[in-house]
C-alpha cells in the first residue's frame, strides 16, 4: 500500500487547471468604456475555485475599475465574467495593461486569470479649440408628481388627529371631560316649558342613581346632604305626587313643583 | 257566620294590637309577622321558608291563636298519602276497621287554618291534592263536597335539607300568595332573650298568653272584600305594577342587569296572572294596614319580593343560585322602573 500512497502524493500538483480567456479586442476603446472579459476555468473533478480568492470588484488602478465579477458553475468548469471599466483620459492613442489576477483552488493550487492589453484613444483632437456651442444641452428633466406624497401627508395628519382625539376621549381629556350631570337643572328648564311634575321625579331618580319613591327620601337626603335644606318641601312634593298619581282626588300644584325644581337646580350648581 | 264581627274602623286597631302581641311573642321577626298579617287580610295562603329552629312553627301557632277558629295540623313525611289528610283509618274498640274524617275534615267546614308542617317532605301527590284545597277551598270526601270558606293554608319548609324532600311543583307554589322568609333574628338582644328568658322556653304557655281571636276569623272574608273594594289603585299605580311584573318576565327589554347573569337566559318564567292578582290584593292590604285609602309604590315594594320571588323560575344554569339572583333581579326592577311613569 505504501507505493500507492507515494504515487498519489504529487498528484494535486500535477492537476493544473486549464484557463482559457476570451479577452476584449485590443483597440478602439475610449474613456468610460466597459471591457468584458470572459474566462473559463476547466477544473479537475472534485476541485473547485475558492470563492474567497476571486478578484473583488474595486478600483484596481487610478484609471481602471473592476466593476463586477460574475461566476457561473458549469459541468466543464467555472465561467467567469469580469467587467472592467476604463477611465484613462488619453492624450494620444495609448497601450494599457490590465494585470493578471491570482486565484486559488480548493486543493491548494494557485492559478492565474490572465491579464490583457488594449489601446485607448482621446475623444477629440487635442488642438481643437473649445467653444461654448460644443456644450451639449442638459438632458430633459422629468417633473416629479408631488400629489401622492401630499395625499399621504394629509392622510397621515388626519390619522394623527383622529387618534389624538380618540386618545383624548378615552382618557377624558380636555373637551371630553365629563361634565357633572345636572338632572335638576335640566328638569327645571324642561318644566319651565312643560309643567309636568314627573320630570322632577325623573330628575330625582337620576340624582339618586335609582328610582326614588317617597319612602326613600331619608336615604336620598343621607346620600345627598346638600339637599337637606329642602327636606320639608321634598316631602311635601312626594306627598302631593302620591295624592295626584295614586290618590283619588288629584289637583297637584305644579307651580310649587317648578319652584322646587329651580331651587334644587340652584343647589346642584352650587349657588346656594 | 252571624257572630258579632267588629266594625270596620275597629279592625285597624285590632290589627295593630295583634301585631304588637305577636312581636312580643316572636322576637326579631317583625317583617315576617307583618307579611303574615297582610296575607290574613288578603286571604292568601302562605309558605314560610327558613332555617331550622327560627320559630316558624311558633309564629304560625301564634297567628292561628290570634285569628282563632278551628285549626288542623299535618306533618309532612315521605310516606304521607293524600287520603291521610282526608280520612283517618283505625281499628275501633271492637277491633273493627273504621274510617273517620282525617285532619282536614275533623274540624268541620269552619276550619280556619290548615297548617302543613314541612311541606317539602310530602310527595307530589299530596301537593296535588292541596292544589284544590288551596285554590277552591273545597274537598270531596265521603261522597260529598266540603267547603271551607274561612280556610287559610299555612305551610312551612326548611331550606337546609335536600335529602328525601320534594321540591314544590310550580303550580303548587303559584297558589301560595306569599313565600315569607324567616331568618335568624339579627338583633343581639333578641337572640340573647330567646336563649335565656325562660318565657320563651315553654312555647305552649307563651302562645297561651296571647289573647285569642283578636282578629276573629269569621269576619276576615268580609273585611278582605271591603279592603279590596275600598282601597284605590290608580291608573299610574296599575301601570307601575304592570311594568314591574313585565320587567320580571322580560328583564332584557326592561333594561335590567344583574351581576354575573346573562339577562336573556336568567328568567324562564313566572309572574302569572294569579301572581299579579295576589300582588295587588296584598298591596291593597298593606295600604289599608298603613291607614291609607290608596295603594302607593311603597306598598308594592314592601310586598313584591314575598309575593313574586317564589313564582319566578330561573333558567337551569341559574336555579342553583336563586337565593342571590332573584332578590337581585327584583332590586334591579325597583331601581329601574320609573314611577310615576309618563
Could you characterize the architecture of this molecule?
Chain A has 272 residues and is of the alpha+beta class. Helices cover 36% and strands 21% of the residues of chain A. Chain A has helices spanning 2-8, 11-14, 147-171, 183-193, 197-208, 217-223, 231-246, 254-268; strands at 18-22, 34-42, 58-61, 64-73, 77-86, 94-98, 101-104, 110-113, 116-120. In chain A, the strands form three sheets. Chain A has a five-stranded antiparallel sheet, with no helix packed on it. A two-stranded antiparallel sheet of chain A has the order 6-9. A two-stranded antiparallel sheet of chain A has the order 7-8. In chain A, helix 4 runs antiparallel to helix 5 and helix 4 packs antiparallel against helix 8 (254-268). The radius of gyration of chain A is 50 Å and the shape is rod-shaped. The relative contact order of chain A is 0.09. Chain B folds into two domains: 8-218, P-loop containing nucleotide triphosphate hydrolases (Rossmann fold); 231-336, Magnesium chelatase subunit I, C-Terminal domain (Helicase, Ruva Protein, domain 3). In chain B, a hairpin with a 2-residue loop joins strand 6 (138-141) and strand 7 (144-147). Chain B is globular and about 75 Å long. Chains A and B meet through helix 5 and helix 7 of A and helix 13 and helix 14 of B. Chain A: Keywords: Signal. Chain A: This is MxaA protein. Chain A: Residues 1-15 form the signal peptide. Chain A: It comes from Paracoccus haematequi.
Amino acid at each position: 500500500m505504501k507505493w500507492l500512497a507515494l504515487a498519489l502524493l504529487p498528484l494535486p500538483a500535477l492537476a493544473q487547471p486549464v484557463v482559457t480567456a476570451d479577452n476584449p479586442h485590443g483597440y478602439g476603446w475610449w474613456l468610460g468604456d466597459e471591457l468584458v472579459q470572459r474566462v473559463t476555468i476547466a477544473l479537475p473533478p472534485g476541485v473547485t475555485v475558492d470563492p474567497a480568492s476571486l478578484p473583488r470588484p474595486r478600483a484596481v488602478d487610478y484609471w481602471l475599475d473592476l466593476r463586477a465579477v460574475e461566476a457561473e458553475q458549469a459541468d466543464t468548469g467555472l465561467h467567469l465574467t469580469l467587467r472592467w471599466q476604463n477611465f484613462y483620459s488619453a492624450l494620444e492613442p495609448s497601450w494599457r495593461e490590465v494585470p493578471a489576477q491570482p486565484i486559488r483552488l480548493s486543493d491548494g493550487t494557485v492559478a492565474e486569470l490572465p491579464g490583457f492589453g488594449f489601446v485607448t484613444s482621446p475623444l477629440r483632437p487635442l488642438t481643437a479649440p473649445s467653444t461654448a456651442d460644443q456644450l451639449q444641452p442638459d438632458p430633459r428633466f422629468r417633473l416629479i408628481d408631488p400629489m401622492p406624497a401630499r395625499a399621504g401627508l394629509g392622510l397621515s395628519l388626519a390619522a394623527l388627529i383622529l387618534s389624538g382625539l380618540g386618545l383624548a376621549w378615552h382618557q377624558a381629556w380636555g373637551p371630553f371631560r365629563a361634565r357633572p350631570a345636572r338632572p335638576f337643572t335640566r328638569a327645571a328648564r324642561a318644566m319651565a316649558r312643560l309643567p309636568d311634575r314627573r320630570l322632577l321625579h325623573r330628575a330625582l331618580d337620576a340624582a339618586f342613581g335609582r328610582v326614588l319613591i317617597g319612602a326613600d327620601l331619608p336615604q336620598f337626603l343621607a346620600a345627598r346632604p346638600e339637599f337637606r335644606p329642602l327636606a320639608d318641601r321634598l316631602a311635601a312634593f312626594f306627598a302631593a305626587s302620591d295624592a295626584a298619581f295614586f290618590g283619588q282626588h288629584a289637583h297637584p300644584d305644579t307651580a310649587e313643583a317648578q319652584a322646587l325644581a329651580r331651587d334644587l337646580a340652584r343647589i346642584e350648581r352650587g349657588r346656594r | 257566620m252571624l257572630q258579632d264581627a267588629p266594625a270596620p274602623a275597629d279592625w285597624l286597631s285590632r290589627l295593630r294590637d295583634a301585631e304588637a302581641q305577636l312581636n312580643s311573642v316572636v322576637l326579631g321577626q317583625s317583617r315576617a309577622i307583618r307579611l303574615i298579617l297582610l296575607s290574613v287580610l288578603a286571604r292568601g295562603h302562605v309558605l314560610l321558608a327558613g332555617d331550622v329552629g327560627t320559630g316558624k312553627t311558633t309564629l304560625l301557632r301564634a297567628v292561628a291563636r290570634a285569628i282563632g277558629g278551628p285549626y288542623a295540623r299535618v306533618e309532612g313525611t315521605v310516606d304521607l298519602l293524600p287520603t291521610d289528610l282526608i280520612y283517618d283509618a283505625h281499628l275501633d274498640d271492637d277491633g273493627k276497621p273504621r274510617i273517620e274524617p282525617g285532619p282536614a275534615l275533623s274540624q268541620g267546614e269552619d276550619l280556619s287554618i290548615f297548617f302543613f308542617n314541612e311541606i317539602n317532605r310530602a310527595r307530589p301527590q299530596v301537593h296535588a291534592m292541596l292544589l284544590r284545597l288551596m285554590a277552591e277551598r273545597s274537598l270531596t270526601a265521603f261522597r260529598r263536597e266540603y267547603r271551607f270558606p274561612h280556610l287559610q293554608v299555612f305551610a312551612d319548609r326548611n331550606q337546609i335539607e335536600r335529602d328525601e324532600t320534594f321540591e314544590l311543583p310550580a303550580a303548587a307554589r303559584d297558589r301560595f300568595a306569599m313565600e315569607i322568609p324567616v331568618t335568624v333574628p339579627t338583633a343581639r338582644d333578641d337572640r340573647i332573650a330567646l336563649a335565656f328568658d325562660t318565657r320563651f322556653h315553654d312555647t305552649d304557655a307563651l302562645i297561651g298568653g296571647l289573647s285569642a281571636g283578636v282578629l276573629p276569623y269569621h269576619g276576615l272574608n268580609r273585611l278582605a272584600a271591603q279592603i279590596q273594594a275600598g282601597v284605590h289603585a290608580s291608573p299610574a299605580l296599575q301601570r307601575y305594577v304592570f311594568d314591574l311584573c313585565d320587567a320580571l318576565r322580560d328583564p332584557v327589554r326592561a333594561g335590567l342587569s344583574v351581576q354575573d347573569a346573562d339577562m336573556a337566559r336568567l328568567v324562564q318564567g313566572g309572574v302569572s296572572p294569579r301572581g299579579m292578582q295576589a300582588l295587588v290584593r296584598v298591596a291593597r292590604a298593606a295600604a289599608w294596614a298603613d291607614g291609607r285609602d290608596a295603594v302607593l309604590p311603597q306598598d308594592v315594594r314592601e310586598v313584591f319580593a314575598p309575593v313574586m320571588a317564589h313564582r319566578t323560575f330561573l333558567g337551569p344554569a341559574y336555579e342553583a343560585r336563586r337565593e342571590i339572583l332573584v332578590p337581585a333581579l327584583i332590586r334591579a326592577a325597583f331601581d329601574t322602573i320609573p314611577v310615576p311613569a309618563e
